[in-house]
Amino acid sequence: MKTSDRIIGGIALLSVAIIVIKLAGSMFGYDLIQMAVDATRPPAPAGWPNVVAN
C-alpha cells in the first residue's frame, strides 16, 4: 500500500466520521461540533471576543 493511499483513506475515514457526528446530532436536535467548540471556549470577558453574526 502506497503512502498516498493511506493518506486518502485517512481523509475519507475522517470525512465519514464528521458526517456521522453531524447526522447523529441533527437527529436529536443538537449541533455536536458547535457544542464541542463552545466547551473549549473560555468565558467571554477574559477569553475569546464575542462576535455577533449578522
Structural class: mainly alpha
Strand percentage: under 5%
Q: Main β-sheet: number of strands, strand sense, barrel status?
A: none
What level of helicity do the residues show? 55-70%
Task: Tally the beta strands.
Answer: 0
Radius of gyration over C-alpha positions, nearest whole angstrom: 17 Å
The residue-averaged pLDDT reads: 79
Anisotropy-based shape:
elongated
Distance N to C terminus:
48 Å
Structure description:
By secondary structure, the chain is mainly α. The protein is built from 2 helices and no strands. It is elongated. The chain starts with a helix and ends in a 14-residue tail after the last helix.
How would the blueprint of this fold be written?
Elements (H helix, E strand, L loop, with lengths): L2 H26 L3 H9 L14
Features:
54 residues; mainly alpha; 2 helices
Give a quick rundown of the structure.
The protein has 54 residues and is mainly α. It contains 2 helices and no strands.
